[in-house]
Protein 1
Amino acid sequence: MSMRARARVRSARAFCIARTPVHLYPSSTSRYCVVAMAAAAGAEAPAWIAPAVAALRAADALVFTAGAGMGVDSGLPDFRGPQVRRATRHRTSSQQLSRKQERHRSPLLRFPTTASSVSTSARRASGGHTRPCSTWYVSVSARRASAPLRLLTRRLRGQGLAFSDVSNPRSFQSDPRFGWGFFGHRYQLYSAAEPHAGYAVLRRWAERLPHFVFTSNVDGAFVKAGFDQQRLVECHGSIHYLQSMEALDARGPIPAIWPAQPQLRRLRVDPLTFMADADTLPYCAAPAAGGPPVLCRPNILMFGDFGWVPDRTAAQEERLESFLHALPRDTRLVVVEVGAGTEIPTVRGWGEEALDAFPRSTLLRINPGQPLVPRKEELEGRAISVPEGGMRALTALDAALGGAEGVGCDRGR
């Protein structure tokens, strides 16, 4: 097969993988049959494939950044509030919810429409292909897990509460059983979830070049996927660690942060009421001899949180700073951003700052609903919009690269 024919097959393979649901691949053989058919038909890859592949081939170092959308393909919900109900038709950002839709919106779960923030150029780059992006109803496992969340949604709606009211230290103070019922469900959900194929793609790429991970996710998925914990920043903490509710007031005999698994494996949560069993709530030793036990809480930065212990995250961020300071300013750093939204723009902002810090860096923004990149003249060609889901886009890029061996293969040229 000639080089041109091989390139055509790689391009078609990337296009097919980016456009075909994973569950339609019963085997690798059928996948390549689809590729061969697409190549014969002269299928073209999306416009973002070529510049993204070129950037990865020329990369000297990698930083993977991830928001809540990264976990969607693993069957995890994107907890954000208050948003529109699930939609199956695309709408532009200028279109507003009707009064009826506003009354029936979910106060807990994000059900966005794909095209609400996708520009005309982004749609053109994706070949005119857009699809609904329900970040909860995206997989069989997510649909199964959504039933108890719907019950919680109705409960919150009845009380006039939003996600920010539950993901808040006040929920542990006002009703510890409900506070731990909510976070206990999340812990069990995250612990049971398996990282999707996109994590494996990133891990293979990481083996090729110096790298780091920066994520706002608290699910611990990067650790479960095999990434080095010394090269990871969890900027909002992790649900797999605990701290005391009074840790900032009395550090004495109470450790600042400790692993959650020994205590939370005993936690029992009623899936119908989202109430934790009082006998299984996690407590830590009293700060003073003879004092009452002190309730534990997740080591997660919540809304309105002035009691979060940032020691673990601060140490992670110091290692990231050391990593970046060791890179020459002319390093061709590629930031692969997946599923980071605008509602809490910590991750998106970090990637855009990297573009300023490293003049030869490139940002790949993978997001099916909010893929827009900064429109600055000095960033022309260095910020690439990828209007696709995380697993879909990463799998397509890996195929177009010819596997992990293609990452960094052109550096120094």
Note: Residues 1-45 form one domain.
Protein 2
Amino acid sequence: MPSAHTVVMVALLPITIKNRNIPQNRLDDQRQTNREMLNEVLRRVLQPLTFKQNPNAKSGYYNVLCADGNFRRCKPVLAACLADCPEYSDLHHLERHVCFWCECAKNELGDYVPSDKQHPRRDHNLYRTLSDANTKAADAELSARHVHRGFNVFRHIPCIVSNLPTPDLLHTMQIGMLDHLQKWIFHFMKTHERVDKYNAIWLSVPAYHDLTPKNTSYEEVSQWNGKEMKEMSRYLLGVVTQSLRGGSPAQRPIFNRAIECTRALLQTYMYARYKSHHDATLSYMEDALHRFHTFKDVFLLGRVSKKAKAKANALRTELVKKRKVDEESNAETWTPSKKRREMNAWRDFISHEIDVSKELDADFNFPKIHLMSHWVEQICHYRALQQYSAERHEQAHKTNLKDGWNTSNHNLNYLPQVITFQRRIVCFKI
């Protein structure tokens, strides 16, 4: 596992303008400007490694000035980079909501892909050739592969660019898939009127060793961090299982699928945290991932987008109008009991049509659910995934920047103070 001494601050990247402050008609241009600015900063930071700056970089070895003042024959290598999905997209000039490892189509991200039947890997040498061609045909090819045209510094460095993005358990699982799973489960509990029972069982989880006692119910927590998600993964299955006990004969198969889906995703996460692997553990993880994809449709209504909800609400309004017309036209002929039966039938019909509309527009096509399908391949390439989790780097970010900012005078000239503070901390550690 990497320690705090392995994380050294090299440069401070600029903070780009937030998209929420940009008018909609200028949003694409601002995103392009942000990408170009980020690449220019990285070009300056990584300049010694580029072919253009140092022709000897093609051979891999050149003289480097070391800390003792002597030159040595070295081979610096850019081995990996850690970031979340949006940052990876910006770093590699990819569109948002795509896989940065393979060329999987956007509408197939939610499908199960066995480890031996992966999509083609991303070829950044091809992207560089197409970008340099600057023709309509090349631009169309890049667009079909969800790649932005333009200069990208990683394509000019002697490395395999597609191998740079490393699997990150913090962003992919702890504040990624586990966060999604919690939201799906809570929506499922609301649908089946078991929220009160779920909250009660959640609060009853006792403090045990390093488990924090619960003072608030699940729905009272506004945001979860990675440490809380890791802790929650140890008891979530028990809470869900106890919350879904009982039920009618028609509900039992649905409840069992929800429990199995939760178990499968948690098992996938637990296997991914192993510090060593062999063929058996990899097959167990692949089997758990397959079972998760088999049962995940039970949470489909929890994946309804805002656009799909608006469409369902419009359908509800239209059906309610038809119900009122039907009620008014038969007001004189319906008896009270007949009216009650018809209104119940209308209510069930509207509820069924709304659910069907939401299911047709809901999907699981988002990058983080797809990234888990690459884990077996990545374990074989990078070894244990836990060593690449961004938890250590998030802690280093707090030490290098946030603590320095808190000790500064918070004026416009705060950056030199932050850097001086960080240097002193490093010196004390040494």
Note: Residues 63 and 69 are 12 Å apart (CA to CA).
